[in-house]
Write a structure and sequence with these properties.
The complex is a heterodimer of chains A (309) and B (128). The two termini of chain A are 33 Å apart. Chain A is mainly alpha-helical. Chain A has helices at residues 2-21, 24-39, 47-59, 67-83, 90-105, 110-138, 140-143, 146-154, 159-164, 170-185, 201-227, 233-250, 257-270, 276-288, 296-308; one strand spanning 195-197. Chain B contains 2 helices and 7 strands. Chain B has a 4-stranded antiparallel beta sheet with strand order 2-1-6-7. In chain B, strands 4-3-5 form a 3-stranded antiparallel beta sheet, with no helix packed on it. Chain B is of the alpha+beta class. The A-B interface holds A 84, 86-87, 90, 128, 132, 135-136, 139-142, 144-147, 149-151, 154, 178-192, 194-198, 201, 205, 215, 219, 254, 256, 259 and B 1-2, 4-9, 12, 14-15, 26-29, 35, 38-39, 42-43, 66-71, 77, 79, 104, 106-110, 112-117.
Chain lengths: 309, 128
């Protein structure tokens, strides 16, 4: 056991060294390619070219340091986006802005690139958080707590937390989803109901209120931390730590991996040199994030029944 | 970073077909019209919904049966569906007078735990 721990620690130390000594700009480009490759908007005729373009940069490293390459990526993402802008997830817009930022950073002198990309990353992170908090505050159904109450009860992605924290039985959550389905699709063949009563609302009320204000406060704090134009290393490290805590607390509950990955990529881009542990932590989070998309509620529920009965 | 209940991407569409005999059928919107449905429910104004209603009005419609959520899969209900002109036997063909597209949003009242549908807009295309 001691040997295993020692080996793990030695390997981790080597990984930390590699990340620290390696080209940080290169790491950001690689993570951007992976993010766009796996999570771009699946458009029926533009998805192929985007996949080929991103795949090419994995094979030919020189391609990914070309401003023209990132301009081409931006053009393809924009073409796919402009056709379906009204259904596009908001992180898809972030992919486009980020490709533009990378392309512009590659046009400046090599020694200025890190600083240029770091500034773009800070502004994009800050603006995303500001707009996210602003949209929530302006929505009456969000501020009242109705949004998170509804989401906890009806959205499968929130099933685990509703079950684990709110103690809402899984069959109630399943029934709620069936009720929503009957509301939205019920009228397709026979007249559907116009009102349904959701199960388990009282059990998640407090949790919904907490999540409502946690999201607004944390996003507002992050907006301030990233939008204040500070060159102070401590300020930027503090902003990165708050963002890391935000990602670790939000994404296991709302597993939108593409969004999480682009935020992590930008976090790495704005991280000041020398923050070895934080850099490794963000890379580990990047690797771990897709795993949290597996809803643990079902597994835990089975374990609960086995242990209880 | 989440879409709220009242945001546009939570909207959904319902289709009603009105025959020349005055019957009203609730009908499932075919998958081939998915892009147009998205435009109708997400874009501001009536024009996208009106275009979809106009397109559906120009189709040949046939009588068929379909399942409904909340009922056993064996329960079948009369409905209509658009089909290619040449594929519809005369016995199954329905003369359509008008198409009505309704766009709804959901609203949730935490005090009563009620989730309700609210009509945002309704657009009708009618044959002269």
């Amino acid at each position: 056991m001691t040997g295993l721990v020692a080996t793990f620690r030695a390997r981790l130390a080597r990984l930390v060294d590699q990340l620290d000594q390696g080209n940080r700009f290169e790491l950001v480009l690689l993570l951007t390619i992976l993010t766009v490759l796996l999570y771009h908007n699946r458009h029926w005729y533009l998805s192929g070219p985007i996949t080929v373009l991103m795949g090419a940069a994995l094979v030919w490293p020189s391609a990914r340091t070309s401003a023209l390459y990132w301009a081409a990526a931006l053009a393809l993402l924009s073409l796919a986006g402009v056709r379906t802008w009204y259904t596009l997830d908001n992180h898809q817009y972030l992919f486009m802005y980020w490709c533009l930022a990378v392309s512009l950073a590659l046009l400046v002198e090599a020694e200025e690139r890190d600083r240029c990309l770091a500034r773009s990353a800070s502004l994009l992170l800050g603006a995303s958080m500001l707009l996210a908090a602003g949209q929530k505050i302006m929505s009456p159904s969000y501020v009242s707590g109705a949004f998170f109450e509804y989401t906890l009860l009806c959205d499968w992605r929130f099933e685990s937390i509703a079950w684990a924290v709110g103690r809402v039985p899984l069959d109630h959550l399943e029934e709620n989803r069936r009720l929503v389905h009957s509301l939205t699709y019920g009228g397709a063949v026979v007249p559907g109901p116009s009102t349904v009563i959701l199960l388990g609302a009282d059990q998640v009320r407090l949790l919904a209120r907490a999540m409502t204000w946690f999201a607004v406060v944390s996003e507002s704090v992050l907006a301030v931390l990233f939008l204040v134009p500070s060159e102070n290393v401590r300020w930027r490290v503090a902003a990165s730590i708050v963002l890391f805590v935000f990602l670790v607390t939000v994404y296991p509950v709302a597993p939108v991996v593409g969004f999480g990955w682009i935020l992590i990529t930008m976090a790495l881009a704005q991280l000041p040199p020398g923050c070895r542990r934080l850099r490794v932590a963000f890379v580990c989070l990047f690797v771990a994030l897709p795993i949290v998309t597996v809803p643990p509620a079902r597994v835990l529920s089975v374990l609960d029944r086995v242990m209880g009965g | 970073m989440f879409s709220t209940i009242d945001s546009q991407d939570r909207r959904f569409a319902r289709l009603h077909v009105i025959t020349d005999r005055g019957e009203i059928f609730a009908a499932e919107i075919p998958d081939a019209y998915r892009g147009q449905i998205d435009r109708a429910r997400l874009l501001p104004g009536d024009s996208a919904a009106a275009a979809l209603a106009g397109n559906l009005l120009g189709q040949a419609w046939e009588r068929t049966e379909g399942n409904a959520p909340g009922f056993p899969p064996t329960a079948m209900f009369p409905t209509l569906r658009p089909a290619a002109e040449r594929e519809v036997p005369d016995a199954m063909r329905v003369k359509v007078k008008a198409i009505r597209i309704e766009i709804y949003t959901l609203s949730y009242d935490p005090s009563s735990h009620r989730l309700s549908t609210e009509l945002v807009r309704a657009v009708e295309a009618r044959k002269p």
